[in-house]
Amino acid sequence: MTKTIFSRIIDREVPAEILHEDDYCVAFRDVSPQAPVHVLLVPREPIPSIMAIDAAHAKIVGHMWTVVPKLAEQLGLDGGFRVVVNNGADGGQSVDHLHWHILGGRQMTWPPG
Ligand code: AMP
Predict the structure, then answer these.
(1) pTM metric for this prediction
(2) Per CATH, which fold does 5-104 belong to?
(3) What is the pLDDT of residue 39?
(4) Ligand 1 pocket by C-beta < 6 Å: which residues?
């Protein structure tokens, strides 16, 4: 199976500014930032999407949520931030490797595009 671009970043085959890594996940800056702060949090395991999450992934996914507030603190997002997980074509997902977008550093608007 072809490695996802995020697996290639995790394996240091593709450069990225990595901000956090542990046994379960890695965070790095998005190459095309949509806000002053735009970080992707990605599981090491290439779970393709939200729809592929099952009970066996509970520890990974639960752990990733515990990383979010630590990253927000590290990034100085004291005023708040947004977490987005796009799923499938209609959701705007372009990389088939589960990832949390952490966006901040400006006022977010609603509804999202
Ligand atoms: P999504 O469209 O929700 O699947 O998000 C994929 C994200 O991955 C987009 O925001 C892209 O800008 C980002 N992305 C794609 N390739 C890279 C890369 N090599 N390094 C960092 N971010 C990337």
Answers:
(1) 0.98
(2) HIT family, subunit A (3.30.428)
(3) 98
(4) 5, 14, 16, 30-32, 40, 86, 92-95
